[in-house]
Amino acid sequence: MEESTAESCCNVVHVETVALVREASLPEQEVTELAAVFAVLGDPTRIRILRALSVSEMCVCDLAAALQMTQSAVSHQLRLLRNLRIIKRRKSGRMNYYSLDDDHILNLFETGLHHVSHR
Questions:
Q1: Is the dihedral of CA 115, 116, 117, 119 positive or negative?
Q2: Which residues contact 82 (CB under 8 A, 6 or more apart)?
Q3: What pLDDT, on the 0 to 100 scale, is given for residue 1?
Q4: SS3 (DSSP) at 2
Q5: What is the residue extent of each domain of the chain?
Q6: In this model, does residue 42 exceed pLDDT 90?
Q7: Region 100-108 average pLDDT
Q8: Assigned architecture for domain 31-117
Q9: pLDDT above 60: residue 6
């Protein structure tokens, strides 16, 4: 009777590989923060907001109109995105304008979009 690969693999520990992976492990805070970013990005409404903001800086009114949502609903999503530094706010008088926080967010968005669009 042959052993399966999974069963035979469990009997051998590749010490060098395990040490390499342990050295490359992330601090727990970074793991938690990265998981939170991906969790927030896992919402279709927030993806639409990020897409809009990847095109142009926008105020809540314009985002609501572009996405056919209420300003209240957009504001709620913007607050979540801002708390994780995915977007930033710029005040101009009484108006707030929103944009992607930095090029890392744009790259993350574009990389994910490229991944789902290529077959």
A1: positive
A2: 88, 89, 98
A3: 45
A4: coil
A5: 31-117
A6: yes
A7: 93
A8: Orthogonal Bundle (1.10)
A9: no
Supply 90's token pair. Answer: 């710029």
Alpha-carbon distances of 59 from 45, 78, 92, 114, rounded to whole Å:
16, 10, 10, 27
Residue 86, burial from CB neighbour count under 10 angstroms (0-12, 13-18, 19+)? buried
User: Which residues 6+ apart lie within 8 Å of 53 measured at CB?
Assistant: 63, 87, 98, 99, 100
pLDDT of 3 strictly over 50: no
In order of 11, 12, 19, 59, 66, the CA distances from 48 in angstroms are: 48, 47, 41, 15, 10
Question: CA 47 to CA 39: how far, in whole Å?
Answer: 11
Q: How far apart are CA 116 and CA 119, in angstroms?
A: 8
**59 neighbors 71 (Cβ within 8 angstroms):** no
Distant-in-sequence, close-in-space partners of 84: CB < 8 Å, separation ≥ 6: 33, 36, 37, 40
Return the amino acid letter for 84. Answer: L
Average pLDDT over residues 4-31: 83
